[in-house]
Amino acid sequence: MTEFDLIRRYFTRPTPGTLLGIGDDAALLQVNTGNMLVVSTDMLVSGTHFFPDADPFLLGHKTLAVNLSDMAAMGATPRWATLAVSLPEANEAWLEKFSAGFFALAQQFGVELVGGDTTRGPLNLSVTIMGEVPQAMALLRSGAQVGDEVWVSGTLGDAALALAHLQQRIVLSDAELSACAPALHQPQPRVLLGLALRGVANSMIDISDGLLADLGHILDASEVGAQVEFPALPLSPTMGRHIGTARQCALSGGDDYELCFTASAKRHAEIMSIGARLELPLTCIGKVVAGRGCIVHDAAGNPLKLESGSYDHFR
After folding, report:
1. With the CA atoms of 287, 288, 292 and 294 taken in that order, what torsion angle do they form, in degrees rounded to the nearest 10?
2. Structural domains counted in the chain
3. Has this prediction a pTM greater than 0.85?
4. Which of 7, 22, 25, 142, CA to CA, is 20 to 30 A from 276?
5. Do both 129 and 150 map to the same domain?
6. For 21-54, how does the pLDDT look when each residue is reduced to its tens digit (9 = 90+)?
7. How far apart (Å, rounded) are the C-alpha atoms in residues 226 and 300?
8. Alpha carbons 310 and 315: distance in angstroms, whole number
9. Are residues 287 and 158 in the same domain?
C-alpha cells in the first residue's frame, strides 16, 4: 500500500463545509462572516502520551479529543482539522481502527479532516484543529476578576489514578480500573459547555496538565490569585476510596480534559442551570482573590502543603 493509498482509504471523507478539502496542495476554508478563526495544535507521542500498545480506536478518539478540548476552552465551534501521522509501518488493521475512532468523534462534533501528512517513523500523532468564534466572544485565560467564583466541570483525577495503576504505582481492583480508565483513554471534550459559557464565564482553560497548573495559567494571565477548597473538588467514588493518592491526582494529575473557568458570583444560578441542561456536573471550588498564586484549603480551612508535580515535558 502506497502513502496515497493509505490516505485515500483511511483518512479521506467528504468535506462539504470546505471550499476545497483533501486532494490538492492545501485546503480552502471560508470562515463565516463576523467570526474569528481559532487554531490549536497538539501532538501525541508514543511512550510519552500513550502506551505503545494502546487500543487504536481509543487512540484515534483521544488524538482528536485533546484538540477539541482546546476549542471548548476558547468557547469556539470546531470546524476543521489536519492530521500528521508518523507510522512505523502501514498496519492496515491498526489504521482501520484508529481512523474509525478519529472519525466517530469528528462526526459527533461536525469536524472535517481537510489535510495532513503521513511518513514512516516512530509513532507520533499531531492534529491542528480550527474553529470559529464570534468577534469579541472568545473565552481567554486573561479575563478572571477578583470576586469571581472558580468552577470545574465533571470530576477530577480519574485519568491520573488509572495511569498510576497502569504504571504500577498503586493497585486498583478490576471494577475500579473499569470505572476510571475511560477518563484516561476516551476523554469527553466539553465543547457544548464551552459554547454555553460564552458571555457567562470571564476566563477559561481546559485541564490537561493538572488543576493547579492550568488554573495557575489563568491566574498568571489575569494577574490575580485564588483560594480553592479541597473538600469542594468533585471526586468520583473510586477517587474517594484512594484518598491518599487522590489529592495529588486531583490537583496535579493532568489528563482530565475538563474545563476550569471563572465567573461572577452573580452568574452562579445560571451556571448551575447550564450544567443541568447539559447533564454535566459543574462545581464551584473556590474564588478569585487579589494577589498572586493559589492557596488550597483543607476541610478545617488550613492551607495545604502542596507538592509541585504538574506535567512538564522537559522536567
Report:
1. 30
2. 2
3. yes
4. 142
5. no
6. 998 899 999 999 999 999 999 999 999 999 999 9
7. 18
8. 10
9. yes
